[in-house]
Amino acid sequence: MGGRQWLAWLERVEWPFLLDYERGAGASVKAACRAWARGRAPWEAPSSAVARYFATGANGAAMRIAPHVLVHHQDLRFDELATDVVRDAATTHGHPRALLGALVQAYALWVSLREPAPLPYGWLVDTLLDDAKQWQQPFWRALPDAWQHRAGGHFDDRFDQAWLGVAAEVEQLLAAAQRELREGAISAPTVFLTRQGLTSTDARGSGTLCAVAAAYLAARSASSPDRGLATAAHLEGADTDTLASMTGALLGAALGTEWLGGYGRSVQDRTLLINLAEGLLTGPEKARMKTPTYEQAHRARTVFTEQISDVVGGPHVLQLPDRRNAQVSPATGDNASRWLEAVTQDGQTLYLRRPDSRQIPLFDVEPSPAATRVEQPRPRAPKPSSGALLQGAYLPVADAEHVRRTLKDFFGLDPDHYGPTWVSYGQLVLAQDREASATPAQPVAQLHVSVTDPHKTRQLLAGRDLMVMGDEDTGTFRIQIDPLLSVVFAAAGDRRVPRWDSGF
Question: What pTM, to 2 d.p., does this model score?
Answer without folding.
Answer: 0.72
